[in-house]
């Protein structure tokens, strides 16, 4: 239960075996390839070796093509799926089959070609639809659209704003161009569509005359016949385009059997991306390649067994003092879900301490303490258990639902001791709907409903005291960890002086509270002043550091009071549940009352669980991040990211 030790790995291998070597290291899953910084800054190295090049962009393009094909299949041949992907198992040999990948890439190309064809058909459809819309206002005009007039007369098509008064336009034309005639064709909310006929000698005069009314000239290039004839022709073409689109979409849907192969190919290309990214960090002179990176100490035997298959040389070494190796946390499998809580904050520094075993029980207890309801616990556990068993989600989602099972159990246990079962639904239903008072219930049910240890609604002050005491226990535990870390790092005096004087100070406050003279607090203050500046230089530095530490009393008080949120969230969950139960039982035992109860019960408790599960998780995590971690935690680590199979659709059965 600790931070996994890392070793610096350096490998020199034949360039001809590069791809096979990287594939086997990918199979091993314990090597992270990094930039060889020291070698890149050494002129002698750079004279011999140059950075290797990879086909990274090509692999990305192929993966985009496969993912695009999968999206097209989901659109044209949708597969019914739930919130989570149902992963299937596949043997590693089948997963790494080049023939299967090439076949899937060919299928992806066929699908994407048809997708592109549909896109082109949509473009044509949009163009024709726009053209049709522009012709509709002229559909009532029985005149060829390419009519320009005769040798002496000109015919032109125009639009103007709908607000224009055509009588004014006609009057202006009558004065400026007596031969001109204005014919309205149609109108809509925005424009009027007009035809103007005039003598060619007056054409320019007509144009200048109508300009003040924002007349625009309309031309119909490459269109013959009337507007109605062109609309009919376009409708036929649109129908043909729709038929072609449906046919092409049907061809895509007919390839739905390729979906599984495409999913495997997508995961395979993700693995290829990992390899190609590593290639870009290699150095080579064309004959040999140089690889540098990190390897987890437990993974060394596995990686060495793979490298022994190749003509290569390697070495491992401890990280230098100034180096910050990547972080890999190792804990028992049942404890790994708590990783998501730590990762949401920050991974520990390499030379720090793994916080997961330290916060695991605290986090679960805090969550259960704040929710504290037997029924809610069963619901949380059941949902998390079913999703985990049915879908087996990976990564953060997998952690979340595995942790959810523990949170459900914790909520159930705390609910037993606080009397929560859908809040206080048992006594409320018994009294409001059946007329049975609390005293009429069986003794064990009375004991449970009253809270075996505490009932947050009936006794909030006791709940608050419990929350504060729990907080003090966790804070003192955090200080003990700080002492341990200082002893581990060879600074025992610093650890003791950082912590023990505070215990003495708060002990002096306890003595005064117990009836001892007030000057015991002064003794505690003197102890702080004398010890808390021990890291400063010089007498005055130590003195001022000690005096300044008295201000930290407020920080301690703030940390302790922060744990009152345990009581607040427990009370909020219980009160909301109680209010919903009260509203639901107002109708009594009548038919309408039962219906009211069922509706209010379902809506109210679903709301209560949905809202409070988020708040409870956040506040349980916050107490770890701000209060507990502040006593010992050194954050800032970067996650270990080895070359490995990181799949979305399948689980790989690895083979030797």
UniProtKB/TrEMBL annotation:
Residues that span the membrane, as ranges: 358-383, 403-423, 464-485, 505-530, 566-589, 595-618
A Pfam short name: V_ATPase_I
Keywords of the record: Coiled coil, Ion transport, Membrane, Transmembrane, Transmembrane helix, Transport
Subcellular localization(s) per the UniProt record: Membrane
Keyword Transit peptide: no
Top-level lineage group: Bacteria
Main localization category: membrane
Topology class, membrane: Multi-pass membrane protein
Coiled coil (residue ranges): 224-251
InterPro entries in the cross-refs: V-ATPase_116kDa_su
Protein family (similarity comment): Belongs to the V-ATPase 116 kDa subunit family.
Protein name, per record: V-type ATP synthase subunit I
Species of origin: Pseudoflavonifractor intestinihominis
